[in-house]
């Protein structure tokens, strides 16, 4: 078989979706058969992802590879067009890895198991499609498709306020999606030719004011998904009510869709506008880091505390995207993958702890480490990764963003000093609230009422296996980052070079229109 001619990406996207449609036909009374079926489908699809990319993908090629394009609705110029480059490939692998582990994490689900696994598999294909499609209209469709399973997974299997959380999620994300549709249609019809192919759109000569309007529209949509403060409030509510496998999908994959789209659409397709908006992204990133870290301090609900921690860490992605350096953009991509692994591990452990204690309130915990030594050890290791302990992936990613931004020549020295200082404050805050969280859960005096009424059994082999699978790449990337960075460096270097070409344009236009400098830092030192 010639790997270059086989429709790998189409197969990888459609396999879990097609498999989900067969679930109602499976004879199963207690859910045991359907969960094994779903796990096997997840493993097969992940194996196809790994095989396709590691045998048919050239790391040194910055352009799209494994490209497929088939006419779908010719009257609307809607094509099934997919491909992968250094921006999408690591996130497709991450999606397959996290979703397969989420299926294994869903083993205890006994309420409507067929519907649950149907939604998980359908979302599996939809999330991979978001990272692979190269047609703007198709991108909007798969972006919307992914929302539906999450809504039902929250509203049916969530906590006491699940309907509120699910409704808030769908309103925020669907509302943001309208900006994607409007911007996509506007870009497609712009100029003499009508096309929704992303590569063709990127070659169009958009006027600067037009780029700025499009950039703002996309930024609103992706600010919801990333999320960027103040469009973040859906996330703590969604995490507060979700089950462990849904947590893993939200933290591990869903937030990365916003960061990926921000690079793919905003930076790559609208580079001149990116030069104007980059300082705004930096400021928003700093706000995310500091505000979310401080808010996490005040949370007494364990899920909400970790949720705000996720928002804080995604601030580094914004700063890296806006750095105009190879190192900074590389750090942003690494941070997305790293946080996907770390966030999924922490939220899985939160779910495992809740299953035993039946409480999420830190005030009601205490001393459980004496009875749950394995969970204590795993929670500590994953928290160390989240607070960017050297030797783990979070440290490398945040360090790359730090150095990349500090060495950027696209901003004034004063602005860089302020931003780097505030980033450092955020890095200092993170271990404080994470270590205090560990102390309140596992150390101190045992809650006698909790111990007397609940069976605080330690982690079972399935749970240990899931965390081990997540810690291996976390530590592996931390010790040898090239394991991951070599996959996308060619693409990020090419993109950074294009973005840097837009910086002189911004400097020249500031000389012609000095009032612009009031809202953006000066270019150069």
Topology:
Blueprint: H1 8-21, H2 32-56, E1 65-73, E2 78-84, H3 89-105, H4 113-132, H5 136-157, H6 162-189, H7 198-202, H8 208-225, H9 234-241, H10 244-269, H11 271-298, H12 302-321, H13 326-357, H14 373-386, H15 393-406, H16 413-442, H17 448-453, H18 461-479, H19 482-512
Antiparallel strand pairs: 1-2
Helix pairs in contact: 1-2, 1-4, 2-3, 2-4, 3-4, 3-10, 3-13, 4-5, 5-6, 6-8, 6-9, 8-10, 8-11, 9-12, 10-12, 10-13, 11-12, 11-16, 11-19, 12-13, 12-15, 12-16, 13-14, 13-15, 13-18, 13-19, 14-16, 14-18, 15-18
How would you describe the overall organization of this protein?
- This protein has helices at residues 8-21, 32-56, 89-105, 113-132, 136-157, 162-189, 198-202, 208-225, 234-241, 244-269, 271-298, 302-321, 326-357, 373-386, 393-406, 413-442, 448-453, 461-479, 482-512; strands at 65-73, 78-84.
- The chain has 525 residues and is mainly α.
- The chain has one domain (8-514).
- Strands 1-2 form a two-stranded antiparallel ribbon.
- The longest helix has 32 residues, at 326-357.
- It starts with 7 loop residues before the first helix and ends in a 13-residue tail after the last helix.
- The relative contact order is 0.09.
- InterPro entries: NADH_Q_OxRdtase_chain4 (IPR022997), NADH_Q_OxRdtase_chainM/4 (IPR010227), NADH_UbQ_OxRdtase (IPR003918), ND/Mrp_TM (IPR001750).
- It is found in: Cellular thylakoid membrane; Endomembrane system; Membrane.
- Pfam families: Proton_antipo_M.
